[in-house]
Sequence to fold (215 residues):
Amino acid sequence: MPSYRLHYFPESGNSYKLALMLTLCGETFEPVWTDFAGGVTRTAEWRQRVNEMGEIPVLEIDRVKMTQTAPILLKLSEQYDRFGGATADEKFELLRWLFWDNHKLTGYMATYRFMRTFTPNGDPQVLRHFRRRLDDFLGILEQHLARNVFAIGEKPTVADISMMAYLHYPSDEHGYDFGESHPAIHAWLGRMAALPGWRSAYDLLPGQRLTHYTK
Fold:
């Protein structure tokens, strides 16, 4: 069986996507906490040694370093024959929602949450812009999940694992009470949390935590 080492920091939803995928597939990984707040990923040495793109997460599979969460999720899905699409149409829908998440939902939520909670002086104008964009994207997802149990139908896929990652963090970090504002998303997050083996990011990913600046 492959051996896994995951370079991460606990607040990284993208790191959590890979940790959760491995866990749901019955696998374990060696955790490699990374000092993101200390700027290690921006150093030339780290980029030469770990990831030339300067990003977390990095998943080592048998010591081969792999980056970019979406293609790694797809690789693991194929490897374990889990959380994928069964038909050509389902595979297309899976990719459609996975790419939408990376470009829209995760892309904005990760930046908004980081600026809102983990930086001492987030620009209010930028935060308002991100919030408006997120309200739109969450509205799209809310309407979709009001009609569908999971992203592409009756069974969870890597698209669900990708979309739920940043949304499952505590509400004081992202500023949304989904039970009040987006009941379909709230119910879907509950369905994901009910999957056998599911664990939250802060349960799966140990290590020093980032400073909270929101009051």
